[in-house]
Amino acid sequence: MTPLRSPRRAGERAAELFKRGWNCAESVFLAIHEQVDDSQPPVNLVTALGGGFGSRKTCGALTGAVVALGLVYGRKQINPEAKKLAYAKARELYLAFRQRFHFTDCWELTNGEANEDERKRMCTPLVAEITDMVMAILNEEST
């Protein structure tokens, strides 16, 4: 695994990106990508995940985080063991998220808030925290 650059700052970075205008999924993905990969981030792959698939369904920050796990655990060839590990890490993240926030849908996480600015205010700490959760999972591997 690539050594992590500054994992303690990743959550702060995700919140900063979110406040600058990236959506929740993009912010989480970009902050994690900065930690593990020097290549150009394929952020376009996660744009449509923001805002719960644009439908206030499954949290975009959570789905962006799961995609970011693929940067480290994703397969580039058929490998059943790698697939099992990727699924296990995604499940670990999902369960930790659900335990912490009780819900996984954007609509429930934001209490049905209609105002976009208010939703953004509510989601900023969540974006930072899910990023830190991913970094904790990645740190398990690097220690």
Write the layout of secondary structure elements.
Blueprint: H1 10-20, H2 24-36, H3 50-56, H4 60-73, H5 80-101, H6 106-109, H7 116-142
Helix pairs in contact: 1-2, 1-7, 2-4, 2-7, 3-4, 4-5, 4-7, 5-7
**Number of continuous helical runs:** 7
* Whole-angstrom Rg: 14 Å
Number of strands: 0
Classification by helices and strands: mainly alpha
State the helicity in percent bands. 55-70%
Total number of distinct structural domains: 1
**Largest sheet: number of strands, sense, barrel closure:** none
Key descriptive features of the protein:
143 residues, 7 helices, globular
What can you see in these coordinates?
This protein has helices at 10-20, 24-36, 50-56, 60-73, 80-101, 106-109, 116-142. The chain has 143 residues and is mostly helical. It is globular and about 45 Å long. The N and C termini lie close together (11 Å).
Characterize this entry briefly.
This protein has seven helices and no strands. With 143 residues, it is mainly alpha-helical. Helix 1 (10-20) packs across helix 2 (24-36) and helix 5 (80-101) packs across helix 7 (116-142).
